[in-house]
Amino acid sequence: MYSLELSSCDGSNPTLMTQMYCLVPISTLRTSTFTLPWGANIYAKVIATNAYDSSDLSPETTSVKRAVILTNPSAPKGLAEVLASKTTTSIGLSWTNGDSDGGATVKNYTISASTGGAYSVLM
User: pTM (2 decimals)?
Assistant: First the structure.
């Protein structure tokens, strides 16, 4: 387990001081010492500090105990025509998932086609 203190989330950040809100850069969590993969769970607590000292750690929230590192999925790869399913009225296409689902299950694929110009969404 590692601890993290962000310079962008200190007393110099007016948003943090007025709204008690801070953005944690995913790049920080994806590099050393954390090197967390996409989809990793992040548990967070907060400490308040004043001129006298720091508070104890806040408790975890009861409604959401973790954050999840998410991003867009990688592009599908290996796109190919499936000759065995070709008919006079349709063609078959197959592909494999990209290298990463971005931490969440892929729920949809959109097929676009072109005859050499701009691509149009088919389905």
Answer: 0.54
pLDDT digits (tens, 9 = 90+) for 50-85: 778 778 878 776 665 567 778 888 899 999 999 999
Strands of 84-123 (E only): list them: 93-96, 112-113, 120-121
Residue 33, preceding bond cis, omega within 30 degrees? yes
Q: Whose CA is closest to 110, among 102, 99, 122?
A: 122
Tokens at residue 54, please?
A: 């720091």
Q: How is residue 83 annotated by DSSP? A: G
Residues 98-116: tens digit of each pLDDT: 888 888 888 888 888 888 8
The structure tokens listed for 82 are 């499936």
Please report the beta strands in 27-119, taking only residues with DSSP state E, as ranges in sequence order. 41-42, 67-68, 77-81, 93-96, 112-113
Cβ atoms < 10 Å from Cβ of 7: 7
User: What residues does each domain of the chain span?
Assistant: 1-70, 77-121
SS3 27: helix
Q: How big is the chain, counted in residues?
A: 123
